[in-house]
Amino acid sequence: MSLIPKFFGNQGSSIFDPFSLEVWDPFGDFAFPSTSISSYLPSETSAFVNTRIDWRETPEAHVFKADLPGLKKEEVKVQVEDDRVLEISGERSVEKEDKSENWHQVERSSGKFMRKFRLPDNAKMDKIKASMENGVLTVTVPKAEVKKSDVKAVEISG
């Protein structure tokens, strides 16, 4: 039995983890009745927080993968700023409210999102490629070859 109450978000991640992207919503389990869909919609910051991106490094490249379901490639922007900062941004539109429909739950985030990553010195900034397939954005940043240092033996005098 956990000593952390369920309302603190005890779903496999620690609330004390400084690197956790989970945000505790104290009102998350409460339904607030309203006639307007906008009262159920999350703020723009939730779209920012919920945009999950994996960054892995292979011997040849740095590879970023972002799950962006429902977005078209035209709605996503990938750019490099300040020479070594990779920025991935976009906007997920809010569905139009129809007065004849009765909304019971709205969980999909909408609004703008943006994530930035400082790339290491070995990144080839002019060779970055991005592709999007089935709602998954893949950004590949090739790595420059690391030149191996020449080793020279030094004689020890005695």
pLDDT average, as an integer?
76
What is the 3D form? rod-shaped
* Number of H/I helices: 1
Number of strands: 7
Uncertain segments:
32-48
Span between N and C termini? 67 Å
> Could you estimate the helical fraction of the residues in percent?
under 10%
Name the helix and strand elements from N-terminus to C-terminus, one letter apiece. Answer: HEEEEEEE
- What percentage of the residues does DSSP assign to strands (E)? 25-35%
What structural class do the secondary elements suggest? mainly beta
Largest beta-sheet details: 4 strands, antiparallel
Q: How would you write the strand order of the largest sheet?
A: 1-2-7-6
How many whole angstroms does the radius of gyration measure? 22 Å
